[in-house]
Amino acid sequence: MTLDFVNRERELGVLAAWWDARGPRLAVVWGRRRVGKTALTERFASGRTAVFHTGSRRPIADELRTLSRAASGLIEERDLSLNPFRDWADLLESLARAARKEPVLLVLDEFPELAAVSPELPSLIRAVWDRIASTSKLRLLLCGSAVRTMQAMLEERAPLYGRVDLSLPVHPFRPHEAAAMLARLRPADRTLVWGIVGGVPLYLRWWDQGKSVRQNLAELVCQPAAPLLTEGQLVLATEGEAGDLARQVLYAIAAGRTKHNEIADAVRTDPTRTLERLVELRLVERLIPVTEDPKRTRRRLYRIADNFLAFWLGVIAPHQAEIERGLGAGILSVLMRELDDHMGPRFEDAFRSHLRRLAEDGRLAPEVVAIGPFWTAAEDPSEIDAVVLAGRAREAILLGEAEWTRRVNGPALVRELQRKAHALPRVRHDVRFAVCAREHVEGGADLVVTAEDIFSR
Fold first, then answer.
1. Separation in Å, CA 131 to CA 18, 126, 128, 217
2. CATH 3.40.50.300 holds for 9-169
3. 342-387 tens-digit pLDDT
4. CATH number of the domain located at residue range(s) 175-343 in this protein
5. What single DSSP character describes residue 314?
């Protein structure tokens, strides 16, 4: 396993532009645990004059002493080992003076932990920021994993409202980005790993590319206190941010209750606000037919959006207790047989992600406005894995089907897509058809996609 920094070129570019702007600059970087925020900010700080500090709810004096050691040498007129920062205002004003000629970066990682012991800190930052607006080149980067807390800092009544120059979310890797961390694997195996652990960098690093899928699951899942076995509980405890109700909602969706009324029946209360929070956190995705208006349609389905959480809730959790009791070796074969069922919708999601990547790069068609699944509620329902809409008329210009099998019959799937196209409200006369398989599409299609296409840089 390599610990080399990969990906995040876009985020680094955004931060570099933020750094180059005039005057003092304030940025907020946020994202769920394990997603690589610290690695990103450390990479950005490398080669720059920077003070990096991670909050841990220690007494304020201890936090300031640690910051004083990190800033040693930056304050020319002061020996911080003998005269450490007295308070937060002293810290900020001292670094602001040090940054009068050249920029100085102060990174406060896990900022919510600092604010928990110093609730006045956001207001202090605002006061100092207003004073140094025309005299300093200080760059302050606030980073945190408590997503709701970080987002709240940007709201209208928050102390820092209007002072933040950059709000940068950090999300799990997309399929082609995850591929950079799985370079030793075949494309089909990269797909499988991404389908199991998702795009969280730490989980991808845990995967031993020199071992088989079975060996990895044996070590990462099927023994007491295995990393991925315990990680699921940690995600539920720290990422839901809505307490026990969020966990109940997640379990209900994982059990197949995908409609709002089904979820409400399962949790015995209105889950609307909890679902909204889980969607914000990207743990849950609200699906609607791509041809419908999200603000008007009442047709909505919910799915677990995070690959690892879907795998943990749907495949691991039913066996967790017995794995902890030592039955992991026998359960491993059961997990291996359940992988294909788990991978079906994950592969469809990877296919849609690939189409979005093609559209972003201008390689799909001009004026692409939406890409998503489509389905009808008729007696003879039609389901299409991916529909690409273009132009003001939102016409369907490409229809796609993805099958988690090694080989598929391209012409047969195209004929099926042609039949389903009649259910769409607007279809361009020259509509194209895409077929996606794990390794090979026999007979071809207008656009052929395989795991090698999706999981390559």
1. 20, 9, 5, 55
2. yes
3. 999 999 999 999 999 999 999 999 999 999 999 987 655 689 999 9
4. 1.10.10
5. I
Give the chain's residues under pLDDT 50. Answer: 1-3
For the chain, what percent of residues have pLDDT higher than 90? 85
Tell me the whole-structure pTM to 2 decimals. Answer: 0.90
The rounded distance, in Å, linking the Cα atoms of 234 and 240 is 10
Distances from the Cα of 210 to the Cα of 184, 218, 397, angstroms? 8, 14, 42
The C-alpha atoms of residue 46 and residue 59 are separated, in whole angstroms, by: 28
Strands 368-375 and 383-390: antiparallel
Residue 422 CB burial class (10 angstroms; 0-12, 13-18, ≥19)? exposed
**Token duo for residue 434:** 């895409």
Helices (H), 255-385: 260-267, 272-280, 307-311, 320-322, 328-360
Task: State the DSSP H helix or E strand holding residue 317, giving kind and residue range, or none if neither.
Answer: none
Amino acid letter for position 432: R
Is residue 314 within 8 A of residue 254, CB to CB? The reply is: yes
